[in-house]
Amino acid sequence: MPDFEGTWALNRRIEHSDGTLAHFDGQAIWVPDAEGLCQEESGTLRIGKGTPIVAKRRYLWRPELSVYFDDGRFFHDVPPLGGKAAHWCAPDRYDVIYDFASWPEFRVTWQVSGPRKSYRMDSTYRRTHG
Fold first, then answer.
1. Per-residue confidence band for 40, with pLDDT thresholds at 50, 70 and 90
2. What is the pTM for the complete model shown?
């Protein structure tokens, strides 16, 4: 788990099935907590040509690479060498691919499908320091 600790530049592109594009530019910081690491993402989200908004999100990472929402609910397991994982939030399905081939830069791609949500989200993390 110490490989993630520190500050990362985060760039994200979100393409909705209706063609709407969104971009997020910010940072992700992994800091130690009592049980592993806390990941905090913060930055600016722009949906289409709309006014940019400040966006924040927090996740809890545990030593076995299990990720939890900040309220303690299980989210998914990260494949240690990269690869596929999934999260089911009825009736929507979240499929993810972790790509660590260019470490210490890595990419996370989510494909979300269901009656309530339908988009692809590509995130690139580049270590800045720490």
1. very high
2. 0.93
